[in-house]
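Lab notebook, bench 4. The sequencing result for the construct came back, and we need a structural model before the next group meeting so we can plan mutations. Quick request posted to the team channel:

Model the 3D structure of this chain.
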Amino acid sequence: MKLKIVNLEGLYLETDVDAIVVKTTNGELTILNKHIPLITNCTIDVLRVIKDGNEELYALAGGVLFVDENETKIITMAIENKKEIDFNRAENAKKRAEDRLKDPQSDIKRAEIALKRAMNRLSLK
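Done. Here's the predicted structure in token form:
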């Protein structure tokens, strides 16, 4: 199955894969070749890409998943693999988000999303 991932900078990844495991608003899905057509929202979570028996993990910042018979596309604001993540920066982002959550004057929803994204990135450490 062909996997294409597009982020704000353009085409991030295009490769043949055996399967992907992605968390959606309806739960976790495993997508294999010849999957039924599907469009759904992805949540902030780890994307697992399985190719030739190996698994690669990506920190996915949510997005939209499009599946047809032999191609899967993910459109996302941000995605990083372990090699691309600056873990010190992610740790600082987590602390800032936690501090904002303690401040009643801050935008709580935005702080919650920032915290989820930082913790997702840190989970690949």
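Residues 2-82 form a domain with the ATP Synthase; domain 1 fold (CATH 2.60.15.10).
Will bring this to the meeting.
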